[in-house]
Amino acid sequence: MPAHRASSATLAGAYPFLVPPPCDIGVPVGQDALTGGPFCFDPWALYSAGDLTNPNLLLAGVIGQGKSALAKSLAMRSITAGRAVYVPGDPKGEWAPVAQAAGGTVVRLGTGLPARLNPLDAPDGPEPHGPRIRLLAAVAALTVHRELAAAEHGALDAALASAERRSTPTIGDVLDALASPDATSARADGVRIEDRSADGRDLAHGLRRLVRGDLAGLFDGPSTERLDPRAPMVVLDLSRLGSDEDALALAMTCASAWLEGALLASTAKRWVIYDEAWRVLRHVALVRRMQSQWKLSRAHGIANLMVLHRLSDLDAIGQHGSEARSLAQGLLADCSTRVIYRQESDQLSGTASALGLTRPERDLLPVLPRGTGLWKMPHRTHVVHHVLHPAEVDVVDTDSAMRDHTEPHER
Ligand SMILES: Nc1ncnc2c1ncn2[C@@H]1O[C@H](COP(=O)(O)OP(=O)(O)OP(=O)(O)O)[C@@H](O)[C@H]1O
Ligand SMILES: [Mg+2]
């Protein structure tokens, strides 16, 4: 075949890997696989330089490829550069060693453990009712597994207002108020008292799970923990909740309220890391809260990092054309950095069209080795091998259980 000649400008269009100047602002991540040079990343610096349209990062890849290891390295290295990190839910319990290494704190939530979170612990402020009812409505929607009807929302709002006669109400107080609604407030809302009771009945059944059911002892008393806005890293370890998806979603909903409270008191630039995000994306109420927080992220100096297995995790949410689906797609649109680790071959065309990948980029995805990813930013693409520092290796190791369970004769 005759050799093909073209100017570097033409080649750059055909093979974009060759073009970008080195990404050398921020904390070191690893080695640019095409140039051999170092690759650094800092979403705040790149945003200020106009290279990113928002600081959020989406990280997708099949299991065991090093997604969590990358998130953990970024977290630890960013802390040494003066950033803070918040992990609002760690379902596998693999972030505690990272927090310990970084001088952060770990809050462990689970049946039989002493920690409790009160979802009605509203952030300090002159008007706590607004944030409280938004959170309570999200919690109630999670317990009844559906959206609340307008009349139910009215009943919940009135019950919370009655419960707020105490300084810090609990879910138990709201349950009492749902069972015996306040006649004066029902009359003021133009609702018959028996209708108000009926409107609150389903919600009471749902919320009762948090007080007397399988989730008792986690969310039904005054909070024992406070999020310290000055801690370099805070991890909410949810591994003791096991595979209970409802408890996980509830804990993360409460954790999101903590975040809102802490933001008011803090000016630090902060990573908020949703490892295993595909598990929480199943809950529409939680996705809605995440999305509204992401909208405020830039104003508060927050960079969100969301870890998925594949982009089609976002298509598994709600029905086609539903609010839930568009919320999930909105999260993807709100991540101007997309890091793709190895993908299964059935994911290639969907990933390529969602991210606008070129043919060479797409062909790379099924053959990427562990720790190597395609970094897509608005005006640049890099293939980066994440290099672990020897001091990080033990902290990010999630394979030890596999190795420790190996029988001696198998070694
Ligand atoms: N860049 C790297 N260099 C060497 N080893 C790595 C690298 N990245 C990850 N590993 C190792 O690979 C193993 C799996 O990594 P990790 O837990 O981060 O994968 P994951 O993609 O998050 O998997 P899962 O989808 O199951 O959560 C870990 O034990 C880690 O030490
Ligand atoms: Mg992981």
Topology overview:
Layout: H1 8-14, E1 27-32, E2 38-41, H2 43-48, E3 57-60, H3 67-80, E4 84-90, H4 96-101, E5 105-108, H5 129-144, H6 150-163, H7 171-179, H8 183-188, H9 193-208, E6 233-237, H10 245-265, E7 270-274, H11 277-280, H12 284-300, E8 302-308, H13 323-333, E9 337-340, H14 348-355, H15 359-364, E10 372-377, E11 380-386, H16 390-396, H17 400-404
Parallel strand pairs: 3-8, 3-9, 4-6, 4-7, 5-6, 7-8
Antiparallel strand pairs: 1-2, 1-11, 9-10, 10-11
Helix pairs in contact: 5-6, 5-9, 5-10, 6-7, 6-9, 7-9, 10-12, 12-13
Structure description:
With 411 residues, the chain is α/β, with parallel strands linked by helices. It has 2 domains: 8-115 and 225-410, Rossmann fold, CATH 3.40.50.300; 129-208, no CATH class. It contains 17 helices and 11 strands. The chain has helices spanning 8-14, 43-48, 67-80, 96-101, 129-144, 150-163, 171-179, 183-188, 193-208, 245-265, 277-280, 284-300, 323-333, 348-355, 359-364, 390-396, 400-404; strands at 27-32, 38-41, 57-60, 84-90, 105-108, 233-237, 270-274, 302-308, 337-340, 372-377, 380-386. It has an 11-stranded mixed β-sheet with strand order 2-1-11-10-9-3-8-7-4-6-5. α5 (129-144) crosses α6 (150-163), α5 (129-144) runs antiparallel to α10 and α10 runs parallel beside α12 (284-300). The radius of gyration is 24 Å and the shape is elongated. The model has no long low-confidence stretch (mean pLDDT 88).
